[in-house]
Design a protein that fits this description.
- This protein is of the alpha/beta class.
- It is built from 13 helices and 18 strands.
- Strands 1-2-3-7-8-9-10-11 form an eight-stranded parallel barrel.
- Helix 5 packs parallel to helix 6.
- The chain is globular.
- The protein binds alpha-D-glucopyranose and magnesium ion.
- The site of alpha-D-glucopyranose (GLC) has 9 residues, from loops.
């Protein structure tokens, strides 16, 4: 376990350093509904999160990002917010949130809330009481050809007024009009509401959709495959007018001004790293989605990493992420054999990294819900956290409860089982998170490696090699193993192997 002093108030920098705390942080993503149920209703809640914080601390993480816990009809798993300044009863109360923030700080963990500024739930009172805060159009037909991220047109008719409203996501999520000062002020005030309750930062949801073309011009047909994967027909258009407006700074400046410079703002910006500059003028860092989506091949991953580390671009301002509640889990995306190597990749890259709950035990996708909760098919990535194979529902909820999504088994067992198994995936995450704190600055690719092997130096004392191919491949020269994906075969301190099997990777001295 990494020793860390408890801190009641946590500042912008780590003690004894002038580097912002998040610069090399490991942030643990909690999807609260599926983390830990404390009251036996079959749904995870804030008291449950608080009860499991020691797990996050023992993993060696620096912070927790909580996916939304606000009042919500749950048309989009809580990303349809009906009140930015309260807690949904299924998750608890504002007092529970305060207790969770305090419990995190006692353990030296910072806490990030998820802010969903692009849209509210259609059940937010603003939609009826302050309708001018949303984007509307009149006429028999929708005003343009814009498409929703989940398929279908991005405009729906409000049955009460007969007018069209814009929704970049589900029809239950009307888009706010961020060109309006009252919208900027109202959401900014909500961020301050949470700051006053002690949160340390925010993950800003879908901010590439905050501002659109004020003239509502049609998106042109796509002339090439989208730069990042799109669902269904959304990929048939080039989203030059419906997203990513050039004057995005108006919106982001308001969010930054609301929280001041000390508060971490992490942007979920669904654009390639080369287009992040206008966002990074106001937010501290942004997720690197090219690597998340890169096929598990050395050349593709190298290109995605290089794009994110471009010194003329987003270098130093990237948050690495290989999975979250929206996309297939690692064993499903990169293949079960490569899931350990994916962890070694993510945790040895320079900069902040986000780990999605369950990744640290190698959780795979499950069957999802029947009937589904999420119409876009993302239940499969959201099954309850597996704490203990010996406990009912894997320790997620009480024996008598029916979990909202079924508990699924994990190869290698739950947290309790993996904690006492030195060669478990959990052991790998713990060791890598500890080891990454010793890595020097910067990343230099090692050229001349065997095709199919991704290799890079970290600082001037460490080298990483990952066999991404389906065959045994020569590893670059290296010294002693710091941590390998398979510690039984390549124990700490042993000479780095000359050959890597498929799915094998190591962090070693030079
Ligand atoms: C983000 C969230 C996703 C949600 C969408 C709309 O991409 O991660 O879960 O559906 O925004 O809020
Ligand atoms: Mg509960």
């Amino acid at each position: 376990m990494v020793a860390r002093a408890p801190c009641a108030s946590i500042g912008r920098v780590n003690a004894g350093s002038d580097i912002p705390w998040w610069r090399d942080a490991v942030v643990y993503q909690v999807y609260p509904r599926a983390f830990q149920d404390s009251d036996g209703d079959g749904e995870g809640d804030l008291r449950g999160v608080a009860a499991r914080l020691d797990h996050v601390r023992d993993l060696g993480c620096d912070a927790v990002w909580l996916s939304p816990v606000y009042p919500s009809p749950m048309a989009d798993g809580g990303y349809d917010v009906a009140d930015y300044e309260d807690i949904d009863p299924r998750f608890g109360t504002l007092d529970d949130a305060g207790a969770l923030i305090a419990a995190a700080h006692e353990r030296g963990l910072r806490l990030l809330m998820d802010v969903v500024p692009c849209h509210t739930s259609i059940e937010h009172r603003w939609f009826r009481d302050e309708p001018e805060r949303y984007v509307w159009a009149d006429g028999d037909d929708p005003p343009n050809n814009w498409l929703s991220a989940f398929g279908g047109q991005a405009w729906s008719k409000d049955s009460q007024t007969g007018r069209w409203y814009l929704h970049s996501f589900y029809p239950e999520q009307p888009d706010l009009d961020w060109r309006r000062a009252d919208v900027r002020a109202a959401v900014g005030a909500s961020l301050r509401f949470w700051l006053q309750r002690g949160v340390d930062g925010f993950r800003l949801d879908a901010i590439d959709r905050l501002l659109k073309d004020p003239e509502l011009r049609d998106d042109p047909p796509a002339s090439a495959p989208p730069p990042l994967p799109e669902l269904g027909e959304a990929g048939t258009l080039e989203h030059v007018h419906s997203r990513n407006a050039p004057d995005i700074g108006i919106a982001l400046e308001a969010l930054r001004d609301a929280v001041g410079d000390e508060t971490l703002l992490v942007g979920e910006v669904y654009v390639p790293a080369s287009q992040l500059a206008p966002y990074l003028e106001h937010v501290d860092c942004a997720f690197a989605f090219e690597l998340l989506h890169a096929p598990w091949r050395a050349a593709a991953c190298r290109a995605a990493i290089a794009a994110a580390l471009d010194p003329a671009g987003a270098a130093g301002r990237i948050a690495w992420v290989l999975s979250n509640h929206d996309f297939p889990r690692l064993p499903d995306r990169v293949g079960a054999r490569n899931a350990r190597a994916a962890a070694l990749l993510a945790l040895t890259l320079p900069g902040a990294v986000f780990v999605y709950q369950g990744d640290e035990i190698g959780m795979a996708d499950g069957p999802g819900g029947d009937p589904p909760h999420d119409r876009a098919g993302r239940d499969r990535h959201r099954h309850p956290m597996r704490w203990d194979d010996e406990a009912p529902h894997g320790g997620f909820t009480s024996a008598r409860a029916t979990p909202w999504l079924p508990a699924i088994e994990v190869d290698g067992g739950g947290v309790a089982q993996q904690s006492v198994d030195a060669d478990s995936v959990l052991g790998l995450y713990r060791d890598l998170i500890a080891a990454r704190r010793t890595l020097g600055a910067g990343l230099t690719f090692v050229d001349g490696s065997d095709e199919g092997v991704l290799a890079y130096r970290r600082g001037d004392r460490h080298v990483v090699a990952i066999n991404m191919s389906d065959e045994p491949r020569a590893a670059p020269p290296a010294g002693r193993i710091v941590r390998a994906t398979h510690s039984a075969r390549h124990p700490q301190g042993s000479a780095a192997p000359a050959e890597l099997q498929p799915g094998e990777a190591f962090l070693a001295g030079i």
